[in-house]
């Protein structure tokens, strides 16, 4: 096809695709609304998953093993034990907390009741010295706990929130697999909605298509406008669903900002950091699903 014909052909099939959507408003609107619903559910769950992932990461970063030392342990024993911990490749950070610092921290946590602990200052302080140890991977904390217990002459006991850490890891994995499943399910729903929409459109133009084929129009020539129609439906659905997702997310953040739950504060992913990514992803996603669904629908009907 000469270049001047190609340049006039493209605008004409775009216009034909838009006219087809206009002629079949009810079918197109029904498909767009259905796809918006599917993408809205998917988008909101993606935002939920991203926030859960960030909260989980923060919880993991704040997770540690606190190793309490026995009373009367010498400085040399403390230093040797510190070196043992530091040499462990699983350990990322070690903080020494003296009994005095522990009492001060505990006192500050009591706010206006901190004076109740004033009598325990100095020699009467019952709290032990300790090492607060963080790991590169949250799954390594159990190994660090076991390592600490190998030195009973130094270690009194170890505080390790095993059930809490296990719950964090399990919940994070659960959300991950649910996200994958939801993406698959919503993709199938969106695909079949577009597939059926284009199939009905093709069926409604049966006579027109027969005339076009009788005068020599190729199947590709007939198929391309329908593929573009499916692409436009996917594109429109993507834009509108992202707009709704954006409005819902801003509303939720605004609602939470005045509630107790907003004490999570910085743990919530800001809309600016996620909406643009969802927009680009959904545009590509909508166009891909739309074009593939339309191509298969027309291919089957035209028996290409």
Task: Spell out the key features of this protein.
304 residues; alpha+beta; Alpha-Beta Plaits; 2 domains; four-stranded antiparallel sheet; 4 strands; 68% helix; disordered N terminus
Q: Summed up, what is this model?
A:
With 304 residues, this protein is of the alpha+beta class. It has a 4-stranded antiparallel sheet. Helices cover 68% and strands 8% of the residues.
Structural class: alpha+beta
Report the average pLDDT across residues.
Answer: 77
* Helix-strand sequence: HHEHEHEHEHHHH
- Main beta-sheet annotation: 4 strands, antiparallel
**How much is the radius of gyration in Å?**
31 Å
N-end to C-end Cα span: 21 Å
Beta-strand level of the residues, as a percent range?
Answer: 5-15%
| SS summary, helix count | 9
What ranges have pLDDT less than 50 throughout 5 or more consecutive residues? 1-5, 260-264
Total number of domains:
2
- Strand arrangement within the widest β-sheet reads 2-3-1-4
Q: How much helix is in the residues?
A: 55-70%
Number of β-strand runs: 4
């Amino acid at each position: 096809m000469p270049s001047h014909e190609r340049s006039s052909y493209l605008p004409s099939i775009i216009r034909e695709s838009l006219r087809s959507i206009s002629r079949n408003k009810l079918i197109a609107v029904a498909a767009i609304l259905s796809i918006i619903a599917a993408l809205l559910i998917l988008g909101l769950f993606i935002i939920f998953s991203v926030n859960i992932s960030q909260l989980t990461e923060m919880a993991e970063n704040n997770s540690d093993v606190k190793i309490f030392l026995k009373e009367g342990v010498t400085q040399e024993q403390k230093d040797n034990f510190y070196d043992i911990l530091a040499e462990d490749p699983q350990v990322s950070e070690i903080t020494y907390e003296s009994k005095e610092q522990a009492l001060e921290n505990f006192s500050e946590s009591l706010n206006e009741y901190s004076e109740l602990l004033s009598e325990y200052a100095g020699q009467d302080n019952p709290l032990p010295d300790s090492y607060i140890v963080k790991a590169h991977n949250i799954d390594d904390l159990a190994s660090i706990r076991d390592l600490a217990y190998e030195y009973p002459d130094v270690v009194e006991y170890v505080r390790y929130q095993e059930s809490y850490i296990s719950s964090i890891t399990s919940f994070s994995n659960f959300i991950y697999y649910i996200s994958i499943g939801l993406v698959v399910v919503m993709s199938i729903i969106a695909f079949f909605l577009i597939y059926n929409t284009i199939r009905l459109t093709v069926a409604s133009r049966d006579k027109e298509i027969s005339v076009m084929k009788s005068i020599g129009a190729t199947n590709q020539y007939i198929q391309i406008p329908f593929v573009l129609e499916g692409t436009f439906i996917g594109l429109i659905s993507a834009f509108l669903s992202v707009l709704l997702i954006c409005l819902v997310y801003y509303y939720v953040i605004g609602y939470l900002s005045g509630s107790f739950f907003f004490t999570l504060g910085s743990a919530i992913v800001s809309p600016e950091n996620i909406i643009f990514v969802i927009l680009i992803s959904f545009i590509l996603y909508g166009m891909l699903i739309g074009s593939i669904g339309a191509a298969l629908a027309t291919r089957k009907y035209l028996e290409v």
